[in-house]
């Protein structure tokens, strides 16, 4: 090798682990092997063919990954996890961040000029403040060497293309290796980071799945298009059952027949009776001298009232006539039974 090249070799055979590493190694090569003038070359040696070379470099297992630097007599053996981020982190340690970032950023900047996609805006330290200062923006903060960023790139471009004619939101991206100020402003600590920004302010960090459908649905939710299209719930009709409290109870039972349910919302029997009690209220809603009412005994303002009325279980059903308690109902809680009870007492005073 000449004096301008750092080389990282893979020594391999036909082993299963070697086959498994192959696509990742190809991806690393595509990322770094720009041309024969590149300062980094990703290479490989088949030890079933070049046995002498592998023996010279003390290769005893497969695959073996070694880095040969300019100022090192001995190669540095890679011992980490064999995925792209780990390999790039290893190179970052051997070369230094500025060298690695410079290589990759230059590669991607050239590629980006040829692969511009409609709808996707590339922001920089010089342009991000003005662009993001007004309106809705969905922004990808990334690093070109990041494996997850690389996998997201075509999806992000597809999302941008789908919204190219939508003026209500803009899709953009910022390379944090080249635009440190922008990424510092938005406190970016990992890649990719996807932020929803409105009028220059971060509103939300997207942390869901990164498919086109998931990202598009999220954009729709943030714009409010989904919630806005849902019609408001229809107004609920007023209940025919009168709600009484400690302050209104005496007035509420003053005239005619008043049949009162004393209840607690957590009580299972009370919940079971509730729809029947509503039906009973509907039957008598037009009868000026018969009222169907209820009192929630769990409310602070009603606890003294329930105690005064000797309510010691739920539900308790008491019938009042002209302000006086005349009977407690202890029968079956079917609608017909309740009607019969009210009818019986509406024409007779019974203690």
UniProtKB/TrEMBL annotation:
Domain Thioredoxin span(s) in chain numbering: 1-96, 99-224, 230-347
SUPFAM superfamilies the UniProt entry points to: Thioredoxin-like
Keywords tagged on the record: Signal
Family matches, as InterPro entries: PDI, Thioredoxin-like_sf, Thioredoxin_CS, Thioredoxin_domain
One Pfam family hit: Thioredoxin
The family this protein is said to belong to: Belongs to the protein disulfide isomerase family.
Taxonomic superkingdom: Eukaryota
Gene3D superfamilies on file: Glutaredoxin
Keyword rRNA-binding: no
TM annotation in the entry: none
Keyword Signal: yes
Stated name of the protein: Thioredoxin domain-containing protein
GO cellular component, one term: endomembrane system
Xref: PANTHER family: PROTEIN DISULFIDE-ISOMERASE C17H9.14C-RELATED, THIOREDOXIN DOMAIN-CONTAINING PROTEIN 5
């Amino acid at each position: 090798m000449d004096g301008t090249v750092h080389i990282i070799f893979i020594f391999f055979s036909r082993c299963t682990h070697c086959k498994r590493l192959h696509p990742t190694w190809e991806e690393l090569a595509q990322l770094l092997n720009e041309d024969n003038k590149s300062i980094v070359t990703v290479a490989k040696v088949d030890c079933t063919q070049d046995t002498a070379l592998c023996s010279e470099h003390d290769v005893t297992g497969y695959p073996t990954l070694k880095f040969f630097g300019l100022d090192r007599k001995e190669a540095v053996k890679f011992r980490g996890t064999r995925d792209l981020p780990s390999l790039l982190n290893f190179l970052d340690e051997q070369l230094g961040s500025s060298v690695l970032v410079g290589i990759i950023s230059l590669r991607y900047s050239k590629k980006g000029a040829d692969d511009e996609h409609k709808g996707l805006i590339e922001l920089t330290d010089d342009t991000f403040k003005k662009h993001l200062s007004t309106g809705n923006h969905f922004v990808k903060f990334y690093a070109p060497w990041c494996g997850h960023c690389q996998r997201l790139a075509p999806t992000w471009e597809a999302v941008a293309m789908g919204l190219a004619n939508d003026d209500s939101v803009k899709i953009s991206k910022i390379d944090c290796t080249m635009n440190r100020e922008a990424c510092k402003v938005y406190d970016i600590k990992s890649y990719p980071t996807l932020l929803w920004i409105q009028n220059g302010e971060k509103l939300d960090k997207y942390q869901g799945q990164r498919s086109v459908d998931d990202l598009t649905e999220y954009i729709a939710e943030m714009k409010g298009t989904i919630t806005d299209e849902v019609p408001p719930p229809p107004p609920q009709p007023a209940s025919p059952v009168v709600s009484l409290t400690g302050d209104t109870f005496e007035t509420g039972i003053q005239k005619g027949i008043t049949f009162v349910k004393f209840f607690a919302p957590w009580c299972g029997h009370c919940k079971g009776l509730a729809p029947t009690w509503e039906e009973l209220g509907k039957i008598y809603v037009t009868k000026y001298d018969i009222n169907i009412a209820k009192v929630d005994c769990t409310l602070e303002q009603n606890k003294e009232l329930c105690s005064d009325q000797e309510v010691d279980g739920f539900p308790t059903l008491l019938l009042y006539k002209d302000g006086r308690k005349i009977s407690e109902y202890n029968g079956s809680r079917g609608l017909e039974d309740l009607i019969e009870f009210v009818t019986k007492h509406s024409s007779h005073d019974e203690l």
